[in-house]
Amino acid sequence: MPIHLNDETALALIPERNPDSHKGDYGKILLLCGSRGFTGAAALAALGALRSGAGLVYLGVPESIYAIEAVKLTEPVVMPLPDREGMLSEEAIEPIRTLLPKMDAVLFGCGSGLGQGPEAVLKMLLTEAQCPLILDADGITLVSRHKDILRDRQYPTILTPHEGELARLAPPAGERVASSEAFARELGAILLRKGHRTVITDGYKTYVNQSGNPGMAVGGSGDVLAGIILSFLGQKVPPLQAAACGAWFHGRAGDLAAEKLGMRGLLPTDMVVVLPRLLK
Fold first, then answer.
1. pTM for this predicted structure
2. pLDDT, tens digit, 9 for 90 and up, residues 201-246
3. Fewer Cβ neighbours under 10 Å: the N or C end of the chain?
4. What is the CATH number of the domain that holds 232?
5. Is residue 257 part of a domain?
6. Is residue 73 part of a domain?
């Protein structure tokens, strides 16, 4: 039977802040996100990670949008990477490769674009990243072409598709929870299937999220979610539980923001602002 989270059980999975700790104790995480025209996706994912307790956040973006992201964001380490046509290029692989051993978790795909460069970067991450990897948005579309590499990956992978993105992966038909479990087993990945009553499963253990509201159906909301999950991975929450807690607290932030502002016109940044109130 699926497990239903609440504030108490979700908070119990998040490590407490030790008075003697330092920023390195709360994760070094890498986001590879954004492209020309999609600078907001990278910024929102980074803010979601920061507001949910990440210690050190590194954001790698195409060089052509670096100035925009550097102005938007003061807290993360924003790094310009080689690009072509506003997206990461194949030349970005080597500097990313040097960063990977230092990272506790990686997020790829929020606004990354679907060019040859992002696809090459994704293939490298699937085969070389020795840490948990989240694939969101364009990352899910790109990995649909490389499911064989995904299945062979030796480290945890979290996929966060909405129904349209899930369709590109050709999931099995059937009842929502059961088909999600079967598909997660087939891919050897953790599946976070967005929607009303989001399903989070590794194929063997399953959570169903009951927080959130229709006001969260807005562009950028999923980027915030991906950043929250990445932050929890960096804080050493186990991958399945990190995804489940990410869904819960993302929804709770949406609910709290809606209480203050109403659902219509709710912005992803409204959810970001209230996150720290939930993660005491």
1. 0.98
2. 999 999 999 999 999 999 999 999 999 999 999 999 999 999 999 9
3. N
4. 3.40.1190.20
5. yes
6. yes
